[in-house]
């Protein structure tokens, strides 16, 4: 005999099973290979993909603050924070109106973002190490540089916050204002009693009714509240003391770097447009510009949008539909009588400075 071995029936059955198993594994592997390119076609941002799938950006705002986020007589949300949401929506979807404003409070805002109830926060939230280091969140940009202040009644005769020894102070719980006030009174060795009220309207009502001697929050909010009182504004005094740094920023979840980039560069685009003198009204006249920085900004060259997972007209859409940063400010904050100050462009002594889009 040649030495060939005869395969019995049991061994043959085992070989058939092994071959079938191999074919199954191979087909599964091929199916994964087929699926991979489909997932690779995504934007690179789970948040952006979710926004596009649902057809709108979910933006957490306060919805109660004049100049920042407050519905007008037609129910349309107006203000700097609201327009910040619209700008991001314009970049992400091409349409500034594809945004849903989700009311949040100082106490539930971070939970709303962490849980995915909103895609970002734009509601006067101070950028701090503790928040960025402990909450799984990060600040993409500062749309308003602010500081904690005090509002008092003119009849009290108070000229400085250091004269508030023994005063009752209305303040929102869970806010950076609460900590800033405590630090200020402690440093100056004076005492105060905080009156903690969550609802902004109730908080302001408590101050106006005399339940509190002073109302403390970001100076910008105090100025807009005073302005909203009409003729009675003259009865209220915004003290000159600014007792803390309050960089108010746009907040997103960590672990989605592409979405962070989109929100950050949305504001860089708006500041760049202001630096270049490009507005919502004249942007089309710049479409034949020969200046490289402008051409990259408006998507005429450089594929800057593709780098973000967006259309190359992302910045054009922001400027055309929402405007540059200065337009947004003048539309919302200037009418409140608040000077732009340190929120101006760096070329005018402010802090708003745009890294290059290239």
Give the CATH level 1 class of the largest domain.
Answer: Alpha Beta
Radius of gyration, in angstroms, nearest whole number: 28 Å
What is the CATH topology classification name of the largest domain? D-Maltodextrin-Binding Protein, domain 2
Low-confidence segments, ≥5 residues, pLDDT <50? 1-40
Name the CATH architecture of the largest domain.
Answer: 3-Layer(aba) Sandwich
Task: Walk me through this protein's architecture.
With 358 residues, the chain is α/β, with parallel strands linked by helices. The chain has 13 helices and twelve strands. Strands 4-1-5-12-6 form a five-stranded mixed sheet. Strands 9-8-10-7-11 form a five-stranded mixed sheet. A two-stranded antiparallel ribbon has the order 2-3. Helix 3 packs across helix 9 (257-276), helix 3 packs antiparallel against helix 12 and helix 9 (257-276) crosses helix 12 (314-321). The relative contact order is 0.13.
């Amino acid at each position: 005999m040649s030495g060939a071995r005869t395969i019995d029936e049991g061994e043959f059955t085992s070989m058939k099973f092994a071959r079938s198993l191999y074919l199954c594994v191979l087909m599964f592997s091929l199916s994964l290979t087929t699926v991979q390119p489909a997932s690779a076609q995504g934007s690179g941002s789970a948040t952006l993909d979710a926004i596009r799938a649902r057809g709108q950006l979910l933006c957490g705002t306060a919805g109660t603050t004049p100049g920042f986020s407050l519905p007008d007589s037609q129910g349309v949300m107006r203000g700097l924070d609201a327009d910040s949401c619209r700008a991001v929506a314009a970049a992400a979807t091409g349409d500034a109106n594809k945004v849903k404003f989700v009311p949040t409070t100082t106490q539930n805002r971070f939970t709303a973002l962490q849980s995915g109830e909103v895609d970002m926060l734009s509601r006067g939230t101070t950028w701090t190490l503790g928040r960025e280091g402990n909450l799984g969140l990060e600040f993409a940009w500062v749309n308003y540089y602010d500081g904690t202040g005090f509002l008092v009644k003119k009849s009290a005769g108070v000229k400085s916050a250091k004269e508030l020894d023994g005063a009752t102070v209305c303040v929102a719980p869970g806010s950076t204002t609460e900590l800033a006030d405590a630090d200020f009174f402690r440093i100056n060795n004076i005492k105060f009693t905080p009156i903690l009220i969550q609802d902004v309207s109730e908080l302001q009502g408590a101050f106006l009714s005399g339940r509190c001697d002073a109302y403390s929050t970001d100076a910008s909010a105090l100025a807009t509240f005073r302005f909203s009182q009409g003729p009675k504004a003259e009865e209220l005094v915004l003290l000159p003391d600014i007792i803390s740094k309050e960089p108010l920023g746009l907040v997103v979840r960590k672990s989605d770097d592409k979405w962070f980039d989109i929100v950050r560069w949305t504001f860089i685009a708006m500041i760049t447009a202001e630096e270049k003198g490009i507005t919502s009204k004249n942007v089309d006249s710049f479409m034949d510009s020969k200046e490289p920085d402008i051409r990259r900004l408006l998507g005429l060259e450089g594929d800057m949008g593709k780098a973000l997972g967006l259309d190359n007209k992302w910045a054009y859409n922001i400027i055309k539909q929402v405007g540059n940063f200065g337009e947004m400010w003048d539309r919302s904050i200037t009418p409140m009588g608040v000077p732009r100050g340190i929120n101006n462009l760096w070329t005018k002594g402010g802090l708003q400075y745009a890294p290059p889009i290239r």
